[in-house]
Amino acid sequence: MSKIPEYAFELTMRVRDYEVDSQGIVNNAVYLHYLEHTRHEFCRMAGTSFRDMQRRGIDPVLRKLDIEYLHPLGLGADMVSKLAIRREGARFIFIQDIYSLPDMLPVVRANVTVVCLENGHLTRGECLAEAFAKYL
Amino acid sequence: MSKIPEYAFELTMRVRDYEVDSQGIVNNAVYLHYLEHTRHEFCRMAGTSFRDMQRRGIDPVLRKLDIEYLHPLGLGADMVSKLAIRREGARFIFIQDIYSLPDMLPVVRANVTVVCLENGHLTRGECLAEAFAKYL
Amino acid sequence: MSKIPEYAFELTMRVRDYEVDSQGIVNNAVYLHYLEHTRHEFCRMAGTSFRDMQRRGIDPVLRKLDIEYLHPLGLGADMVSKLAIRREGARFIFIQDIYSLPDMLPVVRANVTVVCLENGHLTRGECLAEAFAKYL
Amino acid sequence: MSKIPEYAFELTMRVRDYEVDSQGIVNNAVYLHYLEHTRHEFCRMAGTSFRDMQRRGIDPVLRKLDIEYLHPLGLGADMVSKLAIRREGARFIFIQDIYSLPDMLPVVRANVTVVCLENGHLTRGECLAEAFAKYL
How many domains does the structure of chain B reveal? Predict the structure, then answer.
């Protein structure tokens, strides 16, 4: 995870204070919410949406997620969430990094593997590959 | 909300530490999760389940919720969540109180109004009334 | 809750897809997160913040919340969350309404009662009254 | 992650229906909540608790988490969450697997790396090693 990829998309967000736990930092699970929301906004930017996919019977699901926690975010902190994508057969790998704002410290680094179900069956991923063609 | 009702169901739960926010107490929204989970477990006890209802096209939805926050729960605290139910026409009113364990301090008191949709349309509630007959 | 108040603050937000439950609509508890986030952003606009308050030993806590669910939000929906505030002795009443965008349908209407603790003890609310002076 | 470890602890849980998202399965982030809750209950069993640690200025924090999603859980599903632990210098590695009940299908497999801060500084982990001595 060491080389910085060429990101295809980025989204700024602010920590919502309820996302901070009793340790005074954003709870570890919440970063997966940030990452998912970033992927879904990326889909929108690419001209599709999670809602559209559901209507067409397409279900992107997670197979694997590796995350490193590098620098915690606290109450009211701002961040930018960046995303690159590549395809490996039926799998789409999202390289997702979050940085604090304004100082750009690395917050988390994640690799997220997504496959695509269609009416419950694993697909070869053509449905997503088309939508993401110019970012792959 | 002052008289203690005759409860039809109770459920003990323990605070999960991620539910506690930076103030060191369970976040206000989390109590709605506790209340919902209590209602759903009550349905199970009554012989139906949220999943079964969804399969049959029945959608119980919230119309109104009043909650008083009386005594906060902290890390690792135990509680008992109690529920009574009454029907007012198409509406089901859940009287839901949570108490800390073992000292039985009142934590929250809530009145929750639920109506029942069937394939998207408001019903007269017969679907739920049948399931809950002996608790009304 | 029928008269529309003069709002002091508003915040636009988009539903994050993980906030939508198996019924295809935003889960009832999530609206309390939206309402809290709106109050905290209002504090910022008023020149203070939840983090600053915590540092000074000031803890705003909820006493009571009444919410009506009027029109559900679904995947990817946009909303505007509006807030008015008034003081009643030691209590601050937030009148909080959320509307769907762009059609401005009422989504939820809530009254939220907040009191202010200082080092664990109930205050007369002077700490918040000062910050909110021009909005009361 | 292929060999089944000798687990030191296990916890049964039931999916709470609000944890299920619009795809009809438990949202990916929620499994991190299950894993955290399992670790904290393991601490209790081992004679300490997250609350006690916080009081003593000890802060266990996540450094890394790898998770494979194998079989999704749906509404009302039951599970058992199992945990093994080993120490690598200052790092504690939790091997955490969740299985569906009653059929014992593998749901997620995770490796979670935790380090221990004491008053904000990284420790050599003696604080936790003592508590977990007989499970390492």
Answer: 1
